[in-house]
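User: Could you go from structure to sequence for me? I need the amino acid at each position, not a summary. Structure tokens:
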């Protein structure tokens, strides 16, 4: 039996999508939760809403590392790195 790989998108296509999804996710959060947004919660929300494909791309550092960095940049959380 041959396994089909999930469609891997280009990193350049995923970055703007993930950055936009950050704000789509955040619009329903309280101000208190936006002080320290949680990447794992965001990624789970994205997967539950059919956006998991944007977290599958080739990257030297790893797709999850890059996606979390974009998330941190969007919410001015780079100091946490």
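Assistant: Here is the amino acid at each position, in order:
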């Amino acid at each position: 039996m041959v396994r089909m790989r999930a469609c891997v998108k280009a990193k350049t296509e995923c970055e703007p999508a993930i950055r936009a999804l950050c704000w789509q996710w955040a619009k329903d959060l309280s101000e208190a939760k936006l002080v320290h947004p949680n990447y794992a919660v965001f990624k789970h929300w994205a997967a539950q809403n059919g956006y998991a494909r944007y977290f599958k791309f080739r990257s030297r550092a790893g797709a999850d590392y890059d996606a979390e960095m974009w998330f941190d940049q969007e919410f001015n959380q780079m100091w946490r790195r």
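One structural detail worth keeping in mind: The chain has a mean pLDDT of 90.
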